[in-house]
Amino acid sequence: MPGLHTDSVEHKAIRESVAGIVSRYGPEYFLERGRTGGGIEELWKDLGASGLLGVHLPEEYGGGGGGMAEAVVVVEELAAHGMPLLIWVISPAICGSILAHHASDDMKRRWLPDLADGSKKMAFGLTEPDAGSNAHNVKTTARRTESGWTISGAKYYISAIDQSDAVLLVTRDAQLSTPEKSLLSLFVVPTGSPGLSFQQIDTSIVSPDRQFTVFLDDVQVGEEALIGVTGNGLRQVFDGLNPERILVGALCSGIGRYAIGKAVDYAKQRQVWSTPIGAHQGIAHPLAESHIAVELGRLATVRSAELFDAGESAGEAANIAKFAASEAALKALDQAIQTHGGNGLAHEYGLSELWFVTRLMRSAPVSREMVLNFVAQTSLGLPRSY
Ligand SMILES: Cc1cc2nc3c(=O)[nH]c(=O)nc-3n(C[C@H](O)[C@H](O)[C@H](O)COP(=O)(O)OP(=O)(O)OC[C@H]3O[C@@H](n4cnc5c(N)ncnc54)[C@H](O)[C@@H]3O)c2cc1C
Questions:
Q1: 0.85 exceeded by pTM
Q2: Which of 48, 68, 219, 317 could bond to 304 as cystine, CB 3.0-4.6 Å?
C-alpha cells in the first residue's frame, strides 16, 4: 500500500530486515504466545542478532549508532506484521535511551551491549498506585546508606519485569526532597535483589508482555546502581519518555497498517451480493479514511523522531504523534473488524485479539487527556486545572 511517507535507502533496508525475520514467525506466533503466556525468546534473539534491538543505541556500546528515526522503522514494521512488542518500547527504547544519555561509562558498558543484542532486558518502573498521570507524586523512596541506598515502596503496572534482568526505578530522594517538592533519583536494580518481589496483574491484553505490581522492601543497592546525579531524575526520565511516546506512535502506525492491510485483502475477495464487499462505499470509505488518519499519524511520528534526533525540543511533536497514531490505530482496527463481519471476532483472522493492546495506547503510557492537557497548556498557553 503506497503511503505519504517514503523511506531512505537505509530505512528501507532496516524495514526489509525486520520483515524478513518476522515473516518467519507470523502474527499467529505473537497471538498464541500472548494467549498462553509463552515468551518470544527466539524472535527476540533473532532481532538482537540482526542489530534490530539496538539500532538507536551508540555504536561504542554495541548499538547501531542510529537514532529514534531508525527505532521507529523497526517498531512500526514489527507491528505492521501483527507484532506490537511492548517490550521493545520499554527495554531498548526507554531504558536504553535513559542509560545512553545519563549513565556512567561503566554502567553503559555493563548494560547497553546486552540490551542491544537482546541477551538482557530491563523493565521500567515509574507508575505507582498513587502516581500514574501525576508522576510527581512518586512515593518509592531511596535513602542513603553507608555503601549506597536502600529503596522502599511499590510500583504498579510494571510491564515484563518477570522476563527482565533489572528494573530502572524512579524513586524519591529522601535527603533532597521536601514535603512540598520531590526530587527524583533513578536506579538500575537487579530483579533478583533481596526485598524485590512482584505479583501479576491480570488484564484483557493479549500480549507476551504481562504487567505486575512490584514491591520494594528495603532493597539495598550500591553506588554503582545510581543513574547520573541524585535528585536530577525528573529531567533524566524525560529523556526516556519522549522516545516512549514516539515509539508508541510507531507501534500504533504499524497496527493501523496491519489492520487496514488485512481489511483491504478481505474486502477484495469477500462477496456477499454481486460485487466484492470492498466495492460498497459503506466498507470502502471508512477504510480510506482510516488510511488517511494512519498515514498522518506516521508522518507525525517520523517528524517527532527527526526532531528528537536533531536534539530539538520534541515534547510537543512526540505527544501529537502518540495521540494521532493511537487514535488512528484504534479506528482502523475497529473498521478492519467490521469489514470482516463475524470473522472479525474469530481468532483465525488475527484482529480482535489486538483490540486491548491497541486500546491500551489511549490510556498509557500517557493518557489522551494528559496529551490534551500538554497541548492545551504548552502549545496553546491555556491555564492549568491542576
Ligand atoms: C498495560 C499497561 C502497561 C503499563 N506499563 C507500564 C510500565 O512498564 N511502567 C510504568 O511505569 N507504568 C506502566 N503503566 C502505567 C501507565 O503509564 C499508567 O496507567 C498511565 O500513566 C495512567 O496512570 P493511571 O493508570 O494511574 O491513571 P490515573 O492517573 O489514575 O488517571 C485516570 C484517568 O483520569 C484522567 N486524568 C488524570 N489526571 C487528569 C487531569 N489532570 N486532567 C484530565 N484527566 C486526567 C486520566 O487521563 C485517566 O483517564 C502501564 C499501564 C498499563 C495499563
A1: yes
A2: 317
